[in-house]
Amino acid sequence: MADLYNTALDMFRSQGCAYVDKHPPFYLCSVGAHMFNLANKNHRILFEHGLVMDTRMHIFFVAPPGFSKTFWLRKMLDPKYGLIAGGPFKTGFEQYMTEAGWTGSIVPVNGGWIESPGVAYDYRSGIVGVEEFSALVTAMRQKHSAALDTALLASLDSGMVRKRLRGGKICYETNVTLWAATQPARFDLSSGMGRRFMFILFLPSSRDTELIKQARRRGKYVEPPDSSLYVYRAELKEKFYKLDNLKQIVFLPEVYQLFDELQILHFEEALAERLLIGYHVMKEDIGKELYIRVDPEAKRLVQLAFMWRDQIRRGTELAQVISILREHNGKMPLEQLREKLLDYGMDYVKSTNLIYMLCRDQVLRLRDGEVMLR
Fold it and tell me: Residue 300 forms beta bridges with which residues?
C-alpha cells in the first residue's frame, strides 16, 4: 500500500511550495489520526481505562497575516484541488465561525422552534477547516474557559454534544476534526481548549519572508496535478477501508522513552500519541496490527510540535519581538521595530503597549529611543 505521507510531501515540493517539511506533515498526520478514529469508534480497537480512545488531532496554525495559514487549508481542503477533497469522508472549508455556528442552535420559526444543525454535526465524520474561529482564540487566552460553551469543548474532546437551550435540547455525537488558524497572541495552554489542539507556529524572519516570496513566484503557472490527485484520493480511500481489518495497535516502549526525554506533560502525551498514530497510518501498510514506533521522521515531528508548544506557552508575541531584534543584532530604533511589527499584523497601539510591557518585565530595555534585548 502506498506511503501517503511522503507521496503528498513530494507532490507539494513538485508544485514549488515552501516549508513542505514543516507545516503539511501535521495536516497529513491529522488525516491519519482522523481515519483511525473513525475505524476505532466502529470496531473498538484502542482503549484507555475502559473507554474507546478518541484519536482526533485538531490543528491550530498560528502565524501573522499572509504567512500560509489559509494556503495550507486550501491545499488540503479546496473542493476541487485540495489533496483530500473527494476522499472517503466529507471535507469542507469555512471562513468564519461562532460557537452557535459550530455546535448548532434552536431558532424560532413561525411561533415554534426548529433545530439548526451546526458544522460539528454537518461534518460529524469529516474534516473541516475554519479560517477565523474567534471563540476558540478567546477561550485559549483565558486560564479557565468559563465563558466558553461547554458543548464546543466536548465536541473536540469526547464528541458528545449536549446543549440545552430555551427552545429545546441539542443532542448528538460528532467525530469532526477541526483545523483552525489565528494570528499570534497570548495563549494559555493549560486551559481546556489549549489541551485539545496541536499547534503549528510560524513566526517568520526576514529570510522566511524572502523564501516565501520566491516560492510564490516559483509556483506561478504550475497547473493542478489532476491525475496525481485522482490517484492519491483513490489510495486514501483504499487505506481508509483497510483500517476495517485492523485488530490491534501497539505503542512500543521507545515511544514513551521519547516522551520522557522531551519531558512531555502527562495531559499532553495524548496529543503526541495521536500525532504518531496519524503518521504511521499514513505511512505504513495496514494489516491486522499496527506498531507505533519512533523513526527519525516521527521523532522530528514530535520534537518540532513540542518546541512550538513551548514557544506558544511563553508567548508568541514575545517570541516575535525577540526574533526581530535578534535579526538586528539585539537592538533597533523603537520606530523601526514598530514599523517591522506592522508587517506582521500588529498595529502601532498594540506594538507600543507590548514593547513597554516587555520593558517593565525586564525582557527589553528602552534607552534614547532604541529598544535592546537585556
Answer: none
